[in-house]
Amino acid sequence: MKIVLRKNFLQSVDNLIRRYLAIILFFSYRFIRIQLLVFFAFSLIKQKSTYKKPITGLAFGRQIFDADTNAINKYSRNISIDTIHKSYFFMYLDYLSLFDTYDLVTYLNEGNIRQSVKSHLKTILAHLVKKNGYKFIIASNYDYIECVELPSVCKTLNIPYIILYKEGLNLNTGVATTYTVKNNSVFPFLGDKILTYNQSVRDAFVNSNNHSVAPEKVIACGVPRFDEIIRSENNDTEDTYEAVLFSSYPIDKIGLYKNQHKNTIKKYIDSFHMDFIKLATKMPTKKFLIKTKAAEYYFSYVKKMVDVHGTLPNLTITNHGNAQEYIAKSEVICGFNSTTLIESCLMKKTTVSVKIPNITSSEEENLLKLNLNTHFWDKPGWFENFFMDKNSKTSNKSNNPIDKQYGNLIFSLDGNSSLRVESEILKEVSKFQ
Fold it and tell me: What span, in angstroms and rounded, lies between the C-alpha atoms of 383 and 278?
């Protein structure tokens, strides 16, 4: 164990050094226009796949999307994917003062700026493609501001641009399809193929009244990172944490529901966090963890609430790490309308979600109740009562086939989502050879 911890620590230090060197090089390029500075910066931060396969691509990474590409790397037969986090492309372009606005709608009308962004992305990607032999580019969404110009750039480079659409895996499928249609109405998909987690989101693209996508360009494949759960022979891991809370940021969740409910939703999410933190103060001998998304403002949202209680040695806040690993190491998983709750159900963990009267749908509740050991937080003090009841966390497993439980939400849970994604990628690669 000590060797593993030391290895992980050294890897983290190495990644941090590379990150700050890249930032220095990006900033330097703003004043010293030597292209090699940028090429070297991107070589420093590129995460190379540990799996050697015949065909390699490059992913515009993002935390949850990285879990999908890791699964594809592991389970595919012929492709591997290197990763550069999309934020580095944003950082590079932002340091060049090319983003006067971070608003997508405004950016789409900035003709001259868009041409400059396109030119810089083309230069960088041309270098990366040539040096590493990449045969495709893949991202998790097509409307990130740093990804808007990728369809045009990839076409110029004669390389397919594919989206493994990370949106749409929502505990309320109606919300998921509405969100998809809304996004597509602002900026349509212009790449070569879009791969979705489920059939309903796939159909939303095809049937959109604003910018419909040709049926042959949208394929439902499932969730590659879930292959790790389905294929694992033994999900039993010794619990490190009494409970893990996957933090929900109010503004992100409010956008999924009717505007008239925004104040109520924020109140419930805030209270949900504070009640969990209070639980940690009541059980000082037990370990708890709150996992936020990567951006600093997600972390700060939680930290401000924790700081009210002073130092809590038994409570860890982090914006890094693999969600499935945290789930495996915890007895109870908590969250609100999060994909991690689905993973928790798949791993047969005690699961806690938020119930907001007249707002959270019965469909959402019914989905989570498919794991019989799912519970709903609804008021302050709930966590303390729940954890003090020795019978509350008793595990019950549904006898229904796993695909029947989740089929309406996920295309398939046969453990072969990575292979389906691989198959569609290879089809696109063959068109460009």
Answer: 9
Two tokens, residue 261: 């409910």
CATH superfamily of 230-406: Glycogen Phosphorylase B; (3.40.50.2000)
What is the band of 16 on the pLDDT scale with cuts at 50, 70, 90? Answer: confident
Task: Give the pTM.
Answer: 0.88
- Assess whether pLDDT exceeds 50 at residue 399: no
Q: Which two tokens stand for residue 124?
A: 């960088």
Q: Taking a C-beta distance cutoff of 8 angstroms, is the pair 242, 331 a contact?
A: yes
Measure the CA–CA gap between 170 and 257, rounded to whole angstroms: 12
CA distances (Å), origin 19, targets 47, 128, 287: 11, 18, 31
The helix/strand/coil state of 17 is helix
The secondary structure element, H or E, covering residue 305 is: helix 296-307
Structure tokens given for 256:
């999924």
Q: How confident is the model at residue 79 (pLDDT cuts 50, 70, 90)?
A: very high
Phi, psi dihedrals of residue 137, rounded to the nearest 5° = -115, 135
- 3-class secondary structure for 227-265? HHHHHCCCCCCCCCEEEEEECCCHHHHHCCCCHHHHHHH
Domain boundaries along the sequence of the chain: 46-223+412-431, 230-406
315: left (phi over 0), alpha (psi -120 to 50) or beta: beta
Residues forming a β-bridge with 305 = none
Residues 301-354 have pLDDT tens digits of 999 999 999 999 999 999 988 899 999 999 999 999 888 988 998 888 999 999
Which DSSP letter does residue 226 get? G
What is the pLDDT, as a whole number, of residue 7?
44
CATH number of 46-223+412-431: 3.40.50
Whether 170 and 142 have beta carbons less than 8 Å apart is answered as no
Which residues make beta-bridge pairs with 79? 55
| Angle, in degrees to the nearest 10, between helices 2-29 and 86-95 | 30
Beta-bridged to residue 55, according to DSSP, are: 79
- Let me know if the fold of 46-223+412-431 is the same as that of 230-406: yes
Residue count of the chain, please give it. Answer: 433
Cα dihedral 18→24→25→31 (10° resolution) = 180
Q: Which amino acid is at 60?
A: F
Residue 230 near residue 418 (C-beta atoms within 8 A):
no
